[in-house]
Amino acid sequence: MTRGSEGSVPVPGHRSITEAEKLAEAKLGGIPIRHEQMAVVANIYRAASAVRQHLENSVLRGVDLTWTAFVVLWVVWIWGESETRHVAEEAGISKGTLTGVARTLEGRGLIQRADHPSDGRLVLLSLTEEGQQLMQRVFPAFNDEEAFVTEQLSDEECRSVADGLRRVVLQVEGSGEERRQALLGGAAPAPRRSGRRRKA
Amino acid sequence: MTRGSEGSVPVPGHRSITEAEKLAEAKLGGIPIRHEQMAVVANIYRAASAVRQHLENSVLRGVDLTWTAFVVLWVVWIWGESETRHVAEEAGISKGTLTGVARTLEGRGLIQRADHPSDGRLVLLSLTEEGQQLMQRVFPAFNDEEAFVTEQLSDEECRSVADGLRRVVLQVEGSGEERRQALLGGAAPAPRRSGRRRKA
DNA sequence: TACGTACAATTTGGACCCGAACGGTAATCG
DNA sequence: CGATTACCGTTCGGGTCCAAATTGTACGTA
Predict the structure, then answer these.
(1) What's the rounded Cα separation, in Å, for the pair B100 and A66?
(2) What is the pTM assigned to this prediction?
């Protein structure tokens, strides 16, 4: 995050970020930038990376779980036996990704899949006995690190930050699709450059 | 995010999250959970995913850039010609990942690499003319979407949330290493299970 | 000059990740 | 009741992503 020695004034904290913003403004020469909004997005992602990295390297690595694998386990653990599409959505990954992760977890004996009793299209995911024991053991340690990374925030500040982030999520999930439609103006959705090609 | 029909009381907003927390508490039976801290971490990651997804699908897809590729371009754009290790750190990715991303970007004529004048080990990254034009065109649109996703937050709230997140980042970057050391108690750092295997 | 150490970027291996395409089941319609 | 239509999980292509292994450069010291 920090560079070797950029400025000369020893202003403590946030210097790097603020300086980047100033530089960005200069780069755009006159075009106004929404600073506060930019700072929120930048720090959301920065914090997400830092937190994920810390948790992977502290508690998750020891039990040989990736962040995504843990999230999937957590979702199935909390919600109980669930349909894969729900798990994917709750975990914030695509259906295709879940298929692979679930396969890995299944191979390690942590989750199991079952056919839906009445709808042949559905697959149900649930924790095995071993998976449940794992989560009961790991989650307290995970939560301890959640407390560590937020140590500089009071409970009240935690509530405030969490609420602000929740509003961001709701905004995107609520109005994002509509916004994208408006932006692209009904034009071609510009398919992802990579991805599977049509057979013909 | 939301499920079909879980609860019976029509409490608006945040139901899913809160319910998940309650379920988690029940699962742990007695073991106390730090709710506020858990909510912060959960929502940081949720927001990061949502924001990234929205930006990829709105402005980035149209110019055929992934999130990571854009971040790398942004860093080089803002900081000017930089050494790769700094770019990787600032972008929040590993050096190895940057090598691949930089190759892709170089192939598209958006960035260029140059040898360091005095230290032959270093490689410098800078934007090409085309890369600069792209960023000058794309960033305003990007910032517009940053404003969109934070639309439900006032400027003051934006500052507050950004500051809270900054404190999380500083906490992890400042004390994370020490914390991990203490946690593992000097024991083996438990190598990543995936990735390259040791030869013998 | 030769050698070891330090540190640079790159290569490599395995898992992840998205989203279009696919094949199969369920529901709907004529 | 056959034919669409809608939906579900899986497959697959291309691209990240990390960390170990590798390669190469710089620089100290003998």
Answers:
(1) 22
(2) 0.86
